[in-house]
Amino acid sequence: MVVRGVLFDLDNTLVDRVRSLDVLAAELVGVFSADLGDVDVEVVAEVLRKADGGGYREKEQVFAQILSALPWEDRPEVGDIKDFWYTTFPKCTCAVAGLHEVLEALQGQGIKLGIVTNGSEAMQNAKVDRLDVRVYMETVVVSESAGVKKPVAR
Q1: Rg of the Cα trace of the chain?
Q2: CA angle 133-136-138, nearest 5°?
Q3: CA 20 to 30 Å from 86, out of 79, 120, 123, 137?
C-alpha cells in the first residue's frame, strides 16, 4: 500500500501540550503576580496540567479548578482566567520534538499532509501559526468551522 497522505491531530500530536502548559504557567505567574504573591512556577504548572486534563476537560471546569487550586491572595474572576487562557495559551504553543524534520521528510516523499483538530477556529489556527507548519499542510480542518467534532460515531 502506498501512503499518499497523512492527517494529524494538533494537540498532543504536533503540539507538546505539557510543555506548552509549563510556558503558560510562567506567563500566568507574571500576569497575576499581584494576585498570587510568591508562588513557585512549577506549582502553577502542576495545577494547570491537572486542571487541563490533557486538553479533554470542558474549559469552564479547567478555569474553576485553576481558581480553586492556586493559592490566590486576591482571587480573580473566572472571566479574567478565561480571557488570559484564550489570549495567552496560543502564544505558548510548543512543538513536539523533531516536528519540522518529520513534516519535511514526509513532504519530501510527496506525501500530502493535513490537520484535523477539535476546538475553536481562532485558538487552533493560532496554534498552527505559532508552530509555523501551515506551509506543509494541504488542509487544516477545525471542528468549530466544520460543524462536527472527531471522532464521529457511525
Answers
A1: 17
A2: 115
A3: 137
- The cell 486538553 sits on which residue? 55
Give φ, ψ of 97 to 5 degrees.
-60, 135
Q: What is the 3-state secondary structure (H, E, C) of the chain?
A: CCCCEEEECCECCCECHHHHHHHHHHHHHHHCHHHHCCCCHHHHHHHHHHHHHHHCCCHHHHHHHHHHHCCCCCCCCHHHHHHHHHHHHHHHCCECCCHHHHHHHHHHCCCEEEEEECCCHHHHHHHHHHHCCHHHEEEEEEHHHHCCCCCCCC
Q: Is the pLDDT of residue 152 over 80?
A: no
Interval 49-90: pLDDT, tens: 999 999 889 999 999 999 999 999 999 999 999 999 999 999
Name, in order, each residue with C-beta under 8 angstroms of 6's C-beta and a sequence gap of 6 or more. 106, 111, 112, 113, 114
Q: Which residues contact 5 (CB under 8 A, 6 or more apart)?
A: 111, 112, 113, 114, 138
Report the C-alpha gap between 72 and 2 in whole angstroms. Answer: 55
Global confidence as pTM: 0.91
